């Protein structure tokens, strides 16, 4: 069964190749979408090539609804976006995928049923299909090469849906089993290096020593050190001291 997660329906109108349907299903499921409708697939349905290409998203194809016409596929929808790169002489709002999915999420939260319609690979949606949409979804592509294949357009739209409805962590660090070093641990590291470098005569000439120590401490503070990093740097200094004391 499809998940009960509120989401738009993706409608593939007259898709020509089973491989593209499968790739679209995979793109949808990558971002948590599993409501697919297919209108008059050229090579019939089910299509084994679609299953092979779906790479783990075969459930979407098994549960996909198949319709004869676009009107039937959209009969229960309250707001429809038509994904097309070309203007067809129809007066409609034109929005980016980001705006469409942000608006779509709001409409779904208010109880609406939202659909995004994607056209066949070769020619895209026809005017009759677009006329049934409330707005046009237009990807800001290179105007000299605006053609996107079905899976690419599906992926872009599904990604924007995920961004609009999930908390996305913009940046993170994998600590690999360690933890961030505390202020005290970094302070002890700084003291260790100042002490050993002082004995080695590093802070010379003397009138510059204080500034050099401040710069060194500033270096430690700029580095995002983990406890493992601090332990390693202590070990580096200890080993260098041992090497010096052995006279090697």
Identify the CATH class of the largest domain: Alpha Beta
* Oligomer classification: single chain
Can you give the helix content as a percent range?
A: 40-55%
CATH superfamily name of the largest domain? SPOUT methyltransferase, trefoil knot domain
Along the chain, the helix and strand elements come as EHEHHEHEEHEHEHHHH
**Through-space gap between termini:** 72 Å
How many β strands by DSSP? Answer: 7
User: Could you say how many structural domains there are in total?
Assistant: 2
Please tally the helical runs, counting DSSP H or I stretches of 4 or more residues.
10
Radius of gyration: 30 Å
Taken from the alpha-carbon principal axes, the silhouette is elongated
Q: What is the CATH topology descriptor of the largest domain?
A: Alpha/beta knot
Low-confidence stretches: none
- Into which percentage range does the β-strand content fall? 5-15%
| Largest beta-sheet characterization | 7 strands, parallel
pLDDT averaged residue by residue: 93
Q: Which architecture of the largest domain per CATH? A: 3-Layer(aba) Sandwich
Going by helix content, strand content and strand pairing, the class is: alpha/beta
Enumerate the strands of the largest sheet in spatial order, edge to edge or round the barrel. Answer: 3-2-1-6-4-7-5
